[in-house]
Every structure is written in structure tokens, then in C-alpha cells.
Amino acid sequence: MLNMTMKRKLIVFEANEIPFKVIDRFCQLFPNSCLAKTLSSCTQFVTYDDSIDRGRTPQPTFSWPSIHRGVNDPTHQIYSFNQELSEVDEIYPPIWKILTSSGIKVGLLGAFHSYQSFPETDELKENYAFYVPDVFSQDGKAHPSYLQIFQDYNLKMTRASARNVDRDLHFKKMLKILDQAHQFGIRPSTILEIAIHLIEEKYRPWVSTRRRNHQVTLSFDIFLKHLKRSRPDYAVFFANNIAAAMHRYWAATFPEDFATLQVDRDWIDRYAGEIDRSVLTFDRCLKTLISYVDRHPEYKLICMGGIGQAAREAVWFNSELYITDWSRFMNFMGVEPGHWRSIVAMIPMFNVLVSPECRSQFRSAVQDLRIDGRAVDVREQKNGMFAMCLGHANQSEDCISFRGKRYNIRELGMENVEIEDRSSRSGYHIPTGSLWVYDPLSKKPQSDGRMKISTLDICPTLLSAFKIPVPAYMKGNLVEALL
């Protein structure tokens, strides 16, 4: 039994973009699932991202920083992976930096924008039980250092499967993972599950899309091992497989949400269960964590999706336009080698860092670029990083125009990459998401519905849970029911 004078601890499961529509559907379809059995005894909230008040579609790249820092995106100015964060970390640090500076032990795996905030060695040893940055990291650094082998493999698989799943297993890296599976915490059942899946792929290649679920299972095993070993005060695990499935297969799961369906019945039948499968992966992780906090009731479990998703349009995507040859593209933009470096980003974003002496040239050139008659959506960061939104669907080979002249896309180092599953982004971001709290010491059913809270309320409330003074720049409200 918990000594009531003992401080409470938190496990935060960041299930990116999952809305209650998907959660409630899953609970109805799988009444014996952990989620269905425990949700009614959780305190539940509908979260909303206030960027909608400014007419902007919320994006996880700037919505998660708002959650982690307690200020919205016009204040923190974080929009792209791997942009320079030293200045904003100093003024509006992420919650894990605030906690550790107050003596709270933190463990973290996968939280957005955690790579750029990776601590120095002394700070790591003193304040972090474990620290594995997000899958858009520039390299595989991790803590403890032996996890770099796993992170290298994790990044390799993510890079290769951004839109289409890469079926290459990268055996050399995989063998290193298997050799240290016990040290990492990878369970034999996980290895067996992956092996069975790979056999299934031989006969039904289209199920390769489910590899994203197995990637989460691998990461969760590592998180669980290090959670149990170190028992940090604040532990964070991030998963993106549900968001990835919703983007691709919303039209297959919720065809009734669309006034017009430009996909065929065979496609719907094939992919109708993929969102539910992704939630099943989450549910298995949830069951393990529920069991853990029941045995260690000093912990509360918080699950949150941040923003959510809903129906957008149901169309075929035969191809999307990507930069596949950066050297050719930057040469066309008039920037010589040695004056630029491509930066890892989440497709359809393509980021490049340009040297000071060439920024004016690149800025002018990219502003004159037209794709299918439209200007390229580009955002310039303070340090000379340019974030370009591409991914234009079903384009012709000569869809590019530059300063009044048309070009074949290959002249610019671009390519219409075939989309193997023909999925569009039929599910897309909305400002309302989900958050729910499981407290093993308080399991009474919630009777007053789901309270609506701002994502800006989350950080100050969590700080208050640890008795840490809330910084004056945080304007969110404290949510007593969340404490």
C-alpha cells in the first residue's frame, strides 16, 4: 500500500493525434480490451489546440512543443524538426528540463524535438534515467550509450519507411539489435511476433504497412525495461503508429464520413482494419503499463494524443512529389556544394540549412518556384534553415515552372514517388484531441463527461503535480482534476 506521504510519480504515454472517435470505436469493437475495461475508471479530457483561433491547421511539429513548454507556437516559434533550439530552450524550456533542474528524475523515449535538447554528459548522468530522442534525430545518440545501437536502427527504418514501407531488413544492424536484445529489454514474444509478421509479408506484401506497429512494440520494450530498472519520477513514451494509420486509412475505416469516395471497395476492404490494428498495439502497451502502476501505485498513468484527426478527402494518391536528389536541387537553386546541408524532416516537409552567404540567393530562387502553378509553402528559420512543404499528389513530369520557364521535375532532382498503397491523407489534423488519467488509487467512474481543456493547461498542471512553481510566462489554467 502506498505511503500517502510519498510523492506521486507520472508515466506519460504520448499516443500522437488519437481522438476519442477512434478510442470509442475501438472500445465498442473490442469490449474485452484493456482500453475498454479501464477507460470508464479514468478521468477523461478533450484537449484543444488554440492555433485554430488564428485560422491555422494544427500540426504535431508545433503542437507538441506547445504542450511541452506551456506556450503556443507564436511564442515558442518551433515549427520544424532539428531547428536550432538553444535560445528557446533558455527562455521557454521543455518540461523535462524544468523538472530535472528541480531535482526530478526523468526518463524519456521519443518525445518530439527532444534531439535538439539532448543534454550534455554530466547533466545526463545526474538527471536522466534514460533519454532516447525522437525518430527525426540527426544521429543515434542516446542515454545510456549502449542504446545508440538501437537508435541507429530505429532511425534507419524510419527514414526508409517515411511514406512507403521499406522491406529491406538491414540485417547487419538488426543482428546487432538481436545480439543485445536482453540488455535492451526486447522480449522474446516481440521477436516472435515480428518473425511471424515477416513470414506473412512473403505471402501478402501489402501488410508491410504494419511494420510501424512492430517498431512501436520494440521501442516500448526498451522503455519498459528502463522504466522498471530506474523508476524515474517522470517517464515519457511517444508512439506515432496510430497517427500514421489514421492519415492513410481513415477513408477505409470511416467511409461514411465522406460525401464523395474516390476509392474503390476493394481498397476499403483491404485497409478497413488498419487503424484498429494500430490501436491494438497501443492497447497491449497500455495493459502492461496499467499492470505496472497497479503494482506501483506511486505512479499515475497519463495518456494523451495532443491534437486529433478527422476526415479530409478520400482520393487516390498514385504518387507524391519529393526531392530525391538534393545536390541537383540545390544546384538548380544556385547554391554551391559546401553551402548547404539537408536536415531530417517528416515527409512531406523537406528541410535544408543554407550558409549565410547563400541564403539570399536560395530565398529568391525558392520564391520563384511554382509547382502546378502554385508557390511553394516555405518557412525560413532564424539560423538559415528553410522548411519546404512538398508532397504534391499525382503531378505531371513537367509541373515545375521557374521564372517563367517550365522544367521536367528530374531537372530539379525531384521525382513523383509512387505511393504503393494508393492512400491519400484522408485523415488529417484537427485541434481537438484526447487525454485521460489512470490513477490506481482512484478508480471511480467519471460521471460528469469529458472536460475540455487547452493544451496550454497541461504543462503548468504537471509542474504543479510535482510542487514546482509555474513560470509566469505560462498562461494556461491549472486543471485540478488532472492533478
> What gyration radius follows from the Cα positions, in whole Å?
22 Å
Share of β-strand residues: 15-25%
* Tally of separate helices: 18
What structural class do the secondary elements suggest?
alpha/beta
* Main sheet record: 8 strands, mixed
Total strand count, please? Answer: 20
In the sheet with the most strands, the strands line up as 4-3-5-1-6-19-2-20
First CA to last CA: what distance?
20 Å
Overall, the morphology is globular
Helix % is: 25-40%
- pLDDT < 50 runs, ≥5 residues: none
Average predicted confidence as pLDDT: 91
Word description of this protein:
The chain has 483 residues and is an alpha/beta fold. The chain is built from 18 helices and 20 strands. The chain has helices at residues 20-29, 34-38, 60-69, 73-76, 86-91, 95-101, 121-127, 148-160, 171-179, 181-184, 188-203, 211-230, 241-253, 265-271, 274-295, 326-332, 359-367, 458-465; strands spanning 9-15, 43-48, 106-109, 128-132, 234-239, 299-304, 308-311, 319-323, 340-343, 349-354, 369-371, 374-375, 377-380, 385-389, 400-402, 405-407, 414-418, 427-430, 432-438, 451-454. It has an 8-stranded mixed sheet with strand order 4-3-5-1-6-19-2-20, with helices on both faces. A 4-stranded antiparallel sheet has the order 9-10-14-13, covered by helices on one side. A 4-stranded antiparallel sheet has the order 12-11-15-16. A hairpin with a 2-residue loop joins strand 15 (400-402) and strand 16 (405-407). The longest helix is centred in the middle third of the chain and has 22 residues, at 274-295. It is globular. 42% of the residues are buried.
